[in-house]
Records
---
Amino acid sequence: MYEIVFKKFLTPTICLMEIDAPLVATSAKPGQFVIVRAREMGERIPLTVCDFDPVKGTVTIVIQIIGASSRIICSLEQGDSLTDFVGPLGRPSDFMEEDPASLKGRRYLFVAGGLGTAPVYPQAKYLHEHGAHVDVIVGAKTESLIIMEEQMSEVCDNLHICTDDGSKGHHGLVTEKIKLLLESGAAYDQAVAIGPMIMMKFVALTLKPTSIPLTVSLNTLMVDGTGMCGACRVTVGGKVRFACVEGPEFNAYEVDFDEALRRQSLYRPQEIEADHKCRIGRDL
Amino acid sequence: MKRTPVREQDPKVRATNFKEVCLGYDAGEAMEEASRCLNCKNPGCVKKCPVNIGIPRFIEQVKNGNFEEAFRIISEDSSLPAICGRVCPQETQCEGNCILGVKGEAVAIGKLERFVADYNRENGTPVIEKAAPNGHKVAIVGSGPSGLACASDLAKAGYDVTIFEVLHKAGGVLQYGIPEFRLPKETVVEHEIENVRRLGVRIETNVVIGRTLTVDQLMDKEGYEAVFIGSGAGLPRFMGIEGENLNGVFSANEYLTRSNLMRAFDPESDTPIFIGKNTVVVGGGNVAMDAARTALRLGSNVTVVYRRTEAELPARAEEVHHAREEGVVFRMLTNPVAILGDEKGCVKAIRCIRMELGECDASGRRSPVPVPGSETDIEADTVIMALGTSPNPLIANTTEGLQTERHGCIVADESGVTTRPGVFAGGDAVTGAATVILAMGAGRKAAAAIDRYIKEK
């Protein structure tokens, strides 16, 4: 059992939890993910790692209520435990393989959509600590759905907020903000986009005409998450790749996003039905 | 004297539930069947058993009604008799070499093994003796058949053994791969794993060796003197044909993991499973049979397509027979060439070509060749690919000095010795997908090699 040592709702539907998992806390790296099971008959849910503290032995995860299983996880309280918590899974971000000294002065642009802000955080933090220039664009529907604004501003050079309704920052989509930054003369050696599949697709279309390399982190369906089931397969560069062991990060310009979007929706009818059942008699 | 028939659930009934198909012998039936054994001086059955169980010796005890003694004899060589009695391909191993089989029917060795294990489980398993602790620590990667067998032998010899398992439940393929209707999880699998724990073996679930901890860390920092890698099969293989990423195409591993490990067949489970109207399973091995019979029980019509003939089907004869009784349709000499989708990207049919058998290939089997112009479409909304697996590269990539061969399997000799001193390997991680009993045999041989390695160090 893995105790929830801290819990807080960042928005009405997004919840942050610190989990007591010492082995994962000492081995996790930016770019990796964990798999969580809330209860004995629970589903295995892949979640990106938001932060980790090897000294306290805790791993921070951020979960959005999108179906029955995420609703159950978010209904647990501080002091409760998750039945299972396994990781770190997947490959660390490419820059983790490089000599940290070589990162100094390199210019990074991160584009985070909604919950994608959470996995962007440890990457920005690591790069910022090693002297890279880090700009972050965070996009959300409306101001109240923006998460981790304060923490993010501490680990980057410029934080740009975009909201669909204009309630905060730039009124419009992250792709427009990217264009504005580039037009104003900002230059980047590398871009990273993490968020809804549809956002990553359009960030890729926006950046493709520039020569800036773009990495995306694919949140595909998974069951075991360890390279056994193949549910996470995606087409990258015309080849079938397994996001759980070969990813989750890939070169965005090679990803078949339309296929990935379609595959992601496979169990949506069952999820909606399960969530409906799950909500009966609950106040969440 | 004829082979004593074994009671089974009626095919029509069992096709709609996940309860065990075979009901096993009772004491009287077991004693009757045991009396058929000729107790050969030079028993062929033992030679063909990958773990060399003292078959005529335990059968002799069954004949006389000494079921506890029979269990003790089996336990000298196997920690998982209730499992092996159910899933071993006996017809090509022990029973295939039984002298009675020459003119009539072989002794039902598998069913007798199963009876002995079940009887002792239901009536309190006798305590298995083990040596005094010797203070040496050994780590085992993976809690499947090879890891459990290796751990049992080492624990009995006095070693301090810890198994690291990546999933949330111990058992490996016994949990995620083999369905409930063939191998009940709570009564059989979990009980036999509990027996391994009773030998003093610790099982740590949710640990990814290669990520959470590496083999190097286990040996250099955690004080393990030897490591056995029994990490099992890996990434599912696909055919590389058009349409394989359409919605409704699954690997057998995914389909079975959802149903077996995650219990998706149970309405109480939170894990979804895709239930089609018409399911086509591609492949002819045990995994293909398990996937087909699972889809059938979930309510789908099921067709198995296989590119060779019935004679070449690699699945256990009993599974093929059961699948057919339950209503699975077989189309032999049939091979997919494309999967066709509708405008939403969902499977609507699978296009297959007729095959005929040509020259013998390297495996000695006549290799199938397509008949030009013979394509037909089979209507389907679900396609399950059961084509085997290729090894998971994680451990090899993160372990210094551990060599793999061309396909990614870990290089190890007969006794499990790898290219890295102190690291041993066996089971599917070395051989590619094989059987439970071969993995157990490899685990036992590696345990003996680990014992020699540590004593000579």
---
Amino acid sequence: MFKLSPAGEEFVKKELTRYETKRSAIIPCLFKVQEENKGWVSPEAVTYLSGLMDLPEAWVNEVLNFYTMFNKEPVGKLHVQVCCNISCCMNGARELTKHLKDTFNVKEGEVSADGNVTITRVECLGSCGTAPMMQVNDNYYENLTHESAVKTIKELM
Amino acid sequence: MPKCTINGKEVEVKEGATIIEAFKTMSEDIAHYCWHPGLSIAGVCRLCMVDVEGARGPQIACNTVVKDGMVITNQSEQIKDIVRWGMDFHLINHPLDCPICDQAGECGLQEQYMKFGQYDPEMNQQKVKKRKVVDLGERVVLDSERCILCSRCVRFTDEVSKTNELGIFNRGDRSEVGTFKDKPLNNKYSINTVDICPVGALTSKDFRFRQRVWYLKNDDTVCNGCSTGCNVKAYFNEEGLFRVKPVYNEEVNGHWMCDDGRDIYKYVNKEHRLLKAKNNSGSQWSELTAGKAMQELHNSLFAEIKAAPEKTGVVLTGQYTNEEYQAVFATLKELGVTQAFHWNDTDSDDFDGLLIRGDKNPNTKGLQNAASAFGALKSVADAEAAIASGSLETVMVLAPENIAVYSNYDKTFAALSKAKNFVWFGANKTECFETTNSSNTWMIPIKSFVEKSGTFTNHAGLDQTFNYVTTVVAGALTMSEAMTLFKGETLEFDLRAKPMTSMKNNHFTLNRGEL
Amino acid sequence: MEVKILSEHYDKPSYKSLDGYKELGGYEDLAKALKMDPKQIVEDVKASGLRGRGGAGFPTGVKWGFLPENGEPRYLLCNADEGEPGTFKDRLMMEAAPHQLIEGMIISAFAIKSHKSYIYIRGEYNDSIRSLEKALAEAYKDGLLGKNILGSGFDHDMDIYVGAGAYICGEETAMISSLEGLKGQPKLKPPFPAIEGYLGKPTIVNNVESLASVKYIIRDGVEGYRKHGTEKSAGTKLFSVSGNVVKPGNYEIALGTSMKTLIMDIAGGMKPGRKLKAVIPGGSSTPILTADEAMSANMDYESIASFGSFLGSGAVIVLDDSNCMVDMLGILMHFYHHESCGQCTPCREGTGWLNKVVHAILKGEAREKDLELINGISNHMMGKTICALSDAAAMPALSFLQKFRDEFEYFIKEGQSKVRGVGYAQMHH
């Protein structure tokens, strides 16, 4: 059964009064849950959070399922998101994704056997001038080559 | 009050009214799925498009307020084209499983398709797959693929029942309506979501697969489930009643009714009914028609009661019409009977803030009003005591029709049947009838509320008159008819079921109420 | 030629900190503005001709003028949910000059008499979030935010709200929904946010660049601001140039500068051996221009509009002759399908349908009449929904098909790309 750390619960309490309505705290609190739940939000965590926030589960679940930054399935230790929108594709983003999947032997969206890597294609991350690029967990890595991308991921492992 | 012109006809509307409300006032056709008069405006189905002279482009009628002098049409080629494409957008991912869908015959998609569509679909791609037969608890089933995401049901649970179970999860054409982790939608008003679902996405477990709607007729009546007196439509055919839906009445129930009220039809159907009058004056039961039974009662009891009225009493429940109470009290007066007792197992002032009231009788108020001219009503416990002491020898009981809410039904029956002469007027039969304690028991089948016309006075004192809907038990009487016969008078009445009138063309889509 | 007004100091790392920012004249314009009549600031912003830099190009001062003239609490929201494919200027602004935005916002808030503002930043922009968090803390500490700012008697609180991944939240009413803790779905208009916005209160939503620009209207005055740009497209603007150019990046130019100068000179032109094929002038939603159109267009609202497109967010996506237009449209249709909020039927179903039809072409499974179908679907998505995402998906579809129809017809007939000479599998990986 998922539960936030005491610091996490304290965070939720603060967020609940930070905005004009309690409901506004759903997004920040889901981020906190994701952070403490190995990168994803489980249904159990939704129930827990809705109880903690005293908001209907349906509201929390609507928000959870609307936004792409919340993972509804487990992800690897490194969540590698390669932008495959237009400017990135023009600069080889799809070839890069394929290279990364082959290198780390993982299918798109799945967790590698060692639990280290999940590779997904995502939509525009606002890094079009430095394409191709990827986001690994919270950070951007830009102007990538096949080699530099692999090297970056390996160093982060 | 602004005036506007709609499809060439002038109409005056209330200040602040929207164009779609103006269309409705005029009973002018306008396509729409998401708008519902009892819910907030979502403006998402985009079908209620109209041309407004001088506007930048087509507007949605549901979110445009009528301004004086507006000239509005939804008959232009442009609007017809928009609606036709709007239909197509709604249908490309819809399974088109009408032959196995319970909504067929009263489906918004079918209706609009017949009016605006009737073309070959352009879509030749694979449809989005979603979940089917999702169990949403005691009363409701969801088919996500049929859902057109109008959000009416979500708005209902947010705004009306305020229970917040439903949501639309995910986005784009992956959006799916549902409850979190398919938790049951067990609020007290859940079937309203089925009513307002314009398609077959939400269906009622009680009703699904039981009848095709085109084999049903419907007529308006008043719910007898509690003292609120929601206005309802009963759906029926020769086999009996199948469901009840709310009818809009701003003063009483708005657009809604509760789930308990959905079950009222069940006690009306034959399997729960007392079909014939029964008499047990010795050791065994005999059956006879109700009319014959009342004649015999007149012959055997009327004079006896009149001779010693103090030994007779009447037990009444708040489940009969004002007209029946008047007939009963008039007869009692004629007989000189002064003892009347009130039986109510659900006496409570509870109110859930929306519709459900603790008094489960539709006409307690009416009974009290009728009795006030007669004299004070004593409690049913007083009757039981008087029978036990022998001071009351003859008792007539106006038994409840909705027996589910009478928790002491069996016990009360047993106690009252200790009277020497025991006359039980009622619509239902139950097992407790087998063990009467009286040496002279009569059971008279009474018409249920859908089988008679009359008036209920609701908790607020509002008189609501309703009309005959259909006949289920041909031989049953109203209390008024029973009293007439009891007095030895004759009655011009036809004990046969009234023949069903022929069904109007496209009867259901025209009459199923607000989409 | 670049004209660096906003971006004058973006290359200086010190500009990120409050001290460094102040050394270069930071917050002087705030002090000046706080001594002005708020109404005068609104009038100046109107007179400056500043138009919303987020994409719609609606005059900022006019938008402010829609607020009711009463004491009702009102909110200022900064739209930093930069998500239009091709756009990356707001990110630069927030990371290189967070105080510039904060200063512009306090001035704007003062002008519209708002005591609370939020900066809604897309959640992926971690560096921008950190940068602004730090800057806000500095500003509070320095008395630039909170009670009685710089002794003016004006109170203002500013906070950051972090989005969670939804392109649609860049639409102002979707942003409001998101900030309210709902799904980021646009709200019906009317009522417009200036009347009933965040929590039903009057609300102004402006883009990062628009708000930062207000500072320079105060600094330079209306005349000074109008020194750059054209009559109807006043001032300078940051353009994000990406795609097949030698030097992609953000460049600030005066509005009205020719697109040729921007692409061929400032952004370094095409790669060796490559020819310009097409330009998407204002972010992926805006109708594509052919090379000829692009080379005769100027970077201002009217000029681009005269070619049937939009200046949009200023995201100039440059495509050279190595690109297959069917493939490119496939990428865009996938994007809009992914991002439709799902509320309005024509968009929810239309974006999915367009995506399927374009991918059917790419996979060699399309019929010839599917090209007409694309037009039909697109035309019936335009102007039929609550927000413009539906139009944003339809416009590229219509314009790609109109201007590069031969490539689509070829793909349907041959099952492979006219330009690349290969099928979908080889392009898509």
